[in-house]
Design a protein that fits this description.
binds phosphoric acid mono(formamide)ester, alpha/beta, 5-stranded parallel sheet, globular, 36% helix, 303 residues
Protein backbone atom coordinates (compact mmCIF):
# COMPACT_ATOMS: atom_id res chain seq x y z
CA UNK A 1 0.00 0.00 0.00
CA UNK A 2 1.41 3.38 -1.03
CA UNK A 3 0.60 6.95 -0.01
CA UNK A 4 1.79 10.20 -1.62
CA UNK A 5 3.14 12.76 0.82
CA UNK A 6 5.97 14.37 -1.17
CA UNK A 7 6.40 14.52 -4.96
CA UNK A 8 9.94 13.13 -4.58
CA UNK A 9 8.36 9.76 -3.68
CA UNK A 10 7.38 9.33 -7.35
CA UNK A 11 10.07 8.28 -9.80
CA UNK A 12 10.39 10.14 -13.08
CA UNK A 13 8.99 7.04 -14.82
CA UNK A 14 5.97 7.01 -12.50
CA UNK A 15 5.28 10.70 -13.12
CA UNK A 16 5.44 10.07 -16.85
CA UNK A 17 3.06 7.09 -16.50
CA UNK A 18 0.60 9.29 -14.57
CA UNK A 19 0.78 11.87 -17.37
CA UNK A 20 0.13 9.12 -19.93
CA UNK A 21 -2.89 7.92 -17.94
CA UNK A 22 -4.22 11.48 -17.60
CA UNK A 23 -3.83 12.02 -21.35
CA UNK A 24 -5.73 8.78 -21.96
CA UNK A 25 -8.50 9.82 -19.54
CA UNK A 26 -8.84 13.13 -21.43
CA UNK A 27 -9.14 11.25 -24.74
CA UNK A 28 -11.25 8.29 -23.54
CA UNK A 29 -13.27 9.32 -20.46
CA UNK A 30 -15.87 6.56 -20.89
CA UNK A 31 -13.16 3.91 -20.46
CA UNK A 32 -12.61 5.14 -16.88
CA UNK A 33 -16.21 5.86 -15.85
CA UNK A 34 -16.59 2.74 -13.65
CA UNK A 35 -12.99 1.99 -12.66
CA UNK A 36 -13.58 2.90 -9.00
CA UNK A 37 -17.14 1.59 -8.65
CA UNK A 38 -17.69 0.57 -5.02
CA UNK A 39 -14.67 2.57 -3.78
CA UNK A 40 -14.81 5.58 -1.48
CA UNK A 41 -12.53 8.61 -1.21
CA UNK A 42 -12.47 10.58 2.05
CA UNK A 43 -11.54 14.26 1.73
CA UNK A 44 -10.31 15.48 5.13
CA UNK A 45 -9.73 19.22 4.79
CA UNK A 46 -8.58 21.00 7.94
CA UNK A 47 -7.86 24.14 5.90
CA UNK A 48 -9.89 25.99 3.20
CA UNK A 49 -9.80 24.80 -0.41
CA UNK A 50 -11.79 25.16 -3.61
CA UNK A 51 -9.75 23.46 -6.34
CA UNK A 52 -8.01 20.64 -4.52
CA UNK A 53 -11.00 19.32 -2.59
CA UNK A 54 -13.53 19.72 -5.38
CA UNK A 55 -11.20 18.31 -8.02
CA UNK A 56 -10.49 15.25 -5.84
CA UNK A 57 -14.22 14.79 -5.39
CA UNK A 58 -14.97 15.32 -9.11
CA UNK A 59 -12.12 12.91 -9.94
CA UNK A 60 -13.60 10.14 -7.77
CA UNK A 61 -17.12 10.69 -9.13
CA UNK A 62 -15.80 10.56 -12.72
CA UNK A 63 -14.16 7.22 -11.87
CA UNK A 64 -17.52 5.88 -10.68
CA UNK A 65 -16.65 6.01 -6.98
CA UNK A 66 -18.12 7.84 -4.01
CA UNK A 67 -16.92 10.57 -1.69
CA UNK A 68 -17.26 11.42 2.00
CA UNK A 69 -15.47 13.89 4.23
CA UNK A 70 -15.36 17.33 5.76
CA UNK A 71 -14.22 20.72 4.53
CA UNK A 72 -13.26 22.40 7.82
CA UNK A 73 -11.73 21.18 11.04
CA UNK A 74 -14.52 22.73 13.13
CA UNK A 75 -17.02 20.23 11.74
CA UNK A 76 -14.80 17.24 12.64
CA UNK A 77 -13.82 15.80 16.02
CA UNK A 78 -10.49 17.63 15.70
CA UNK A 79 -12.49 20.49 17.26
CA UNK A 80 -12.89 18.25 20.33
CA UNK A 81 -9.17 17.48 20.44
CA UNK A 82 -8.93 14.27 18.38
CA UNK A 83 -5.43 13.63 17.01
CA UNK A 84 -4.58 13.31 13.31
CA UNK A 85 -3.47 9.71 13.97
CA UNK A 86 -6.82 8.74 15.52
CA UNK A 87 -8.74 10.52 12.75
CA UNK A 88 -6.75 8.58 10.14
CA UNK A 89 -7.37 5.24 11.89
CA UNK A 90 -11.08 6.04 12.14
CA UNK A 91 -11.56 7.14 8.54
CA UNK A 92 -9.71 4.01 7.34
CA UNK A 93 -12.76 2.08 8.60
CA UNK A 94 -15.01 4.00 6.19
CA UNK A 95 -12.96 4.84 3.09
CA UNK A 96 -10.54 3.18 0.63
CA UNK A 97 -8.31 6.24 0.18
CA UNK A 98 -7.84 9.58 1.97
CA UNK A 99 -6.93 13.04 0.65
CA UNK A 100 -5.87 15.29 3.55
CA UNK A 101 -5.10 19.01 3.75
CA UNK A 102 -3.78 20.37 7.03
CA UNK A 103 -2.21 23.66 8.18
CA UNK A 104 0.55 21.78 10.04
CA UNK A 105 3.55 20.55 8.07
CA UNK A 106 3.83 16.78 8.39
CA UNK A 107 0.21 16.10 9.40
CA UNK A 108 -0.56 14.02 6.25
CA UNK A 109 2.62 12.00 6.92
CA UNK A 110 1.36 11.25 10.45
CA UNK A 111 -1.97 10.24 8.91
CA UNK A 112 -0.22 7.94 6.42
CA UNK A 113 1.75 6.27 9.23
CA UNK A 114 -1.48 5.46 11.06
CA UNK A 115 -4.07 4.90 8.32
CA UNK A 116 -4.93 1.49 6.93
CA UNK A 117 -5.49 2.99 3.47
CA UNK A 118 -3.42 5.22 1.13
CA UNK A 119 -3.17 8.88 2.16
CA UNK A 120 -2.60 11.71 -0.32
CA UNK A 121 -1.13 14.98 0.91
CA UNK A 122 -3.49 17.67 -0.40
CA UNK A 123 -1.27 20.44 1.00
CA UNK A 124 0.46 20.68 4.39
CA UNK A 125 1.23 24.15 5.70
CA UNK A 126 4.01 25.90 3.79
CA UNK A 127 5.66 22.56 3.05
CA UNK A 128 4.39 20.53 0.06
CA UNK A 129 1.48 20.15 -2.35
CA UNK A 130 2.31 17.15 -4.56
CA UNK A 131 -0.99 16.90 -6.42
CA UNK A 132 -0.79 20.57 -7.43
CA UNK A 133 2.62 19.66 -8.82
CA UNK A 134 1.06 16.83 -10.82
CA UNK A 135 -1.41 19.37 -12.25
CA UNK A 136 1.47 21.73 -13.02
CA UNK A 137 3.48 18.98 -14.72
CA UNK A 138 0.59 17.96 -16.98
CA UNK A 139 0.14 21.65 -17.89
CA UNK A 140 3.84 22.01 -18.78
CA UNK A 141 3.77 18.72 -20.70
CA UNK A 142 0.75 19.83 -22.78
CA UNK A 143 1.96 23.41 -23.28
CA UNK A 144 5.66 22.80 -23.91
CA UNK A 145 5.88 19.13 -24.87
CA UNK A 146 8.99 18.71 -22.70
CA UNK A 147 10.44 19.27 -19.24
CA UNK A 148 14.08 19.64 -20.28
CA UNK A 149 15.85 22.92 -21.09
CA UNK A 150 13.23 25.24 -19.62
CA UNK A 151 13.81 28.51 -17.77
CA UNK A 152 11.18 28.69 -15.06
CA UNK A 153 10.53 31.94 -13.18
CA UNK A 154 8.82 31.66 -9.80
CA UNK A 155 7.40 34.97 -8.56
CA UNK A 156 5.79 36.08 -5.30
CA UNK A 157 5.77 34.32 -1.96
CA UNK A 158 8.52 31.76 -2.40
CA UNK A 159 8.99 31.32 1.35
CA UNK A 160 5.57 29.94 2.22
CA UNK A 161 4.44 28.83 -1.26
CA UNK A 162 4.20 25.04 -0.91
CA UNK A 163 3.35 24.61 -4.59
CA UNK A 164 6.65 26.25 -5.50
CA UNK A 165 8.65 23.92 -3.25
CA UNK A 166 6.96 20.84 -4.71
CA UNK A 167 7.32 21.93 -8.35
CA UNK A 168 11.03 22.69 -7.91
CA UNK A 169 11.44 19.20 -6.44
CA UNK A 170 9.83 17.68 -9.54
CA UNK A 171 11.49 19.81 -12.24
CA UNK A 172 15.02 19.69 -10.84
CA UNK A 173 15.37 16.13 -12.07
CA UNK A 174 15.26 17.22 -15.75
CA UNK A 175 18.39 18.34 -17.57
CA UNK A 176 18.90 21.94 -18.59
CA UNK A 177 16.23 23.34 -16.24
CA UNK A 178 17.05 26.78 -14.84
CA UNK A 179 15.17 28.49 -12.02
CA UNK A 180 14.78 32.24 -11.50
CA UNK A 181 13.37 33.17 -8.09
CA UNK A 182 11.64 36.58 -8.01
CA UNK A 183 10.46 37.70 -4.58
CA UNK A 184 10.71 40.46 -1.99
CA UNK A 185 13.65 39.87 0.35
CA UNK A 186 11.24 38.90 3.14
CA UNK A 187 9.71 36.06 1.08
CA UNK A 188 12.78 34.50 -0.52
CA UNK A 189 13.00 30.82 -1.37
CA UNK A 190 14.14 28.90 1.77
CA UNK A 191 17.87 28.34 2.22
CA UNK A 192 17.41 24.55 2.34
CA UNK A 193 16.00 24.61 -1.21
CA UNK A 194 18.91 26.71 -2.50
CA UNK A 195 21.48 24.56 -0.69
CA UNK A 196 20.02 21.45 -2.28
CA UNK A 197 20.11 23.01 -5.79
CA UNK A 198 23.71 24.12 -5.26
CA UNK A 199 24.73 20.68 -4.02
CA UNK A 200 23.38 19.11 -7.21
CA UNK A 201 24.75 21.78 -9.56
CA UNK A 202 21.31 23.00 -10.68
CA UNK A 203 21.27 26.52 -12.11
CA UNK A 204 19.29 29.19 -10.26
CA UNK A 205 19.32 32.95 -9.69
CA UNK A 206 17.46 35.34 -7.38
CA UNK A 207 16.15 38.83 -8.03
CA UNK A 208 13.56 41.27 -6.77
CA UNK A 209 12.97 42.70 -10.28
CA UNK A 210 10.36 40.79 -12.29
CA UNK A 211 10.50 42.92 -15.45
CA UNK A 212 14.24 42.66 -15.94
CA UNK A 213 14.04 38.85 -15.86
CA UNK A 214 10.86 38.54 -17.94
CA UNK A 215 12.45 37.94 -21.36
CA UNK A 216 14.31 34.85 -20.11
CA UNK A 217 11.24 32.85 -19.04
CA UNK A 218 9.69 29.87 -20.82
CA UNK A 219 7.34 29.57 -17.85
CA UNK A 220 6.33 32.24 -15.33
CA UNK A 221 4.80 30.70 -12.20
CA UNK A 222 3.06 33.46 -10.23
CA UNK A 223 2.02 32.91 -6.61
CA UNK A 224 -0.16 34.60 -4.03
CA UNK A 225 1.31 36.09 -0.84
CA UNK A 226 0.06 33.58 1.74
CA UNK A 227 -1.80 35.68 4.28
CA UNK A 228 -2.59 32.66 6.47
CA UNK A 229 1.12 31.94 7.09
CA UNK A 230 1.96 35.45 8.39
CA UNK A 231 2.20 36.13 12.11
CA UNK A 232 1.86 39.86 11.54
CA UNK A 233 -1.02 41.40 9.52
CA UNK A 234 0.90 44.66 8.94
CA UNK A 235 3.74 42.73 7.33
CA UNK A 236 1.25 40.93 5.07
CA UNK A 237 -0.37 44.24 4.02
CA UNK A 238 3.06 45.71 3.24
CA UNK A 239 4.07 42.76 1.04
CA UNK A 240 0.82 41.53 -0.53
CA UNK A 241 1.02 43.63 -3.70
CA UNK A 242 4.76 43.27 -4.27
CA UNK A 243 4.12 41.88 -7.78
CA UNK A 244 1.08 42.49 -9.94
CA UNK A 245 1.38 41.05 -13.45
CA UNK A 246 -0.19 43.41 -16.01
CA UNK A 247 -0.10 43.43 -19.85
CA UNK A 248 2.51 46.23 -19.69
CA UNK A 249 4.86 44.03 -17.66
CA UNK A 250 4.63 41.33 -20.34
CA UNK A 251 6.03 43.61 -23.06
CA UNK A 252 9.41 41.85 -23.09
CA UNK A 253 7.97 38.37 -22.53
CA UNK A 254 8.38 35.60 -25.08
CA UNK A 255 5.45 34.98 -27.42
CA UNK A 256 5.41 31.34 -26.26
CA UNK A 257 5.63 32.11 -22.54
CA UNK A 258 3.32 29.98 -20.35
CA UNK A 259 1.87 31.96 -17.43
CA UNK A 260 0.93 29.62 -14.58
CA UNK A 261 -0.56 30.13 -11.12
CA UNK A 262 -1.81 27.44 -8.72
CA UNK A 263 -4.69 29.76 -7.71
CA UNK A 264 -6.46 31.18 -5.78
CA UNK A 265 -5.46 34.52 -7.28
CA UNK A 266 -5.86 37.61 -5.12
CA UNK A 267 -4.29 40.57 -6.90
CA UNK A 268 -1.08 39.26 -8.43
CA UNK A 269 -2.34 38.71 -11.99
CA UNK A 270 -4.52 41.37 -13.58
CA UNK A 271 -7.78 39.86 -14.91
CA UNK A 272 -6.97 41.53 -18.24
CA UNK A 273 -4.32 38.81 -18.72
CA UNK A 274 -6.90 36.01 -18.54
CA UNK A 275 -7.68 36.37 -22.26
CA UNK A 276 -3.98 36.33 -23.25
CA UNK A 277 -3.29 32.98 -24.99
CA UNK A 278 -0.21 32.60 -22.77
CA UNK A 279 -2.38 32.40 -19.61
CA UNK A 280 -2.57 28.75 -18.53
CA UNK A 281 -3.91 28.94 -14.98
CA UNK A 282 -7.46 27.80 -15.67
CA UNK A 283 -6.12 24.94 -17.80
CA UNK A 284 -4.06 23.97 -14.73
CA UNK A 285 -7.30 23.71 -12.73
CA UNK A 286 -8.80 21.26 -15.24
CA UNK A 287 -5.62 19.23 -15.63
CA UNK A 288 -5.51 18.86 -11.84
CA UNK A 289 -8.67 16.79 -11.96
CA UNK A 290 -7.27 14.41 -14.57
CA UNK A 291 -3.98 13.95 -12.72
CA UNK A 292 -5.87 13.26 -9.48
CA UNK A 293 -7.92 10.64 -11.34
CA UNK A 294 -4.70 9.02 -12.55
CA UNK A 295 -3.21 9.14 -9.03
CA UNK A 296 -6.30 7.61 -7.39
CA UNK A 297 -6.17 4.74 -9.91
CA UNK A 298 -2.48 4.20 -9.20
CA UNK A 299 -2.74 4.23 -5.40
CA UNK A 300 -5.82 2.00 -5.43
CA UNK A 301 -3.95 -0.32 -7.82
CA UNK A 302 -6.83 -0.28 -10.28
CA UNK A 303 -5.85 -1.71 -13.68
N1 LIG B 1 -4.23 25.36 -5.80
C1 LIG B 1 -4.92 25.05 -4.67
O1 LIG B 1 -4.44 24.29 -3.82
O2 LIG B 1 -6.14 25.65 -4.57
P1 LIG B 1 -7.15 25.45 -3.35
O3 LIG B 1 -6.49 26.04 -2.12
O4 LIG B 1 -8.41 26.16 -3.76
O5 LIG B 1 -7.35 23.97 -3.17
Amino acid sequence: MRSLIDISELTTKEIEELIETADDIINNPAKYAHKCAGKKLATLFFEPSTRTRLSFEAAMYELGGNVLGFSESQSSSAAKGESVADTAKTVSCYADIIAMRHPKEGAPLVAAMNAGVPVINAGDGGHNHPTQTLADLLTIHREKGRFENLTVGFCGDLKFGRTVHSLISALRRYSGVRFVFVSPNELKIPDYVKASLERDGISYSETTDLESAMSSFDILYMTRVQRERFFNEEEYLRLKDSYILTPEKLQNARPDLSIMHPLPRVNEISVSIDSDPRACYFKQVLYGKYMRMALILKLLEVE
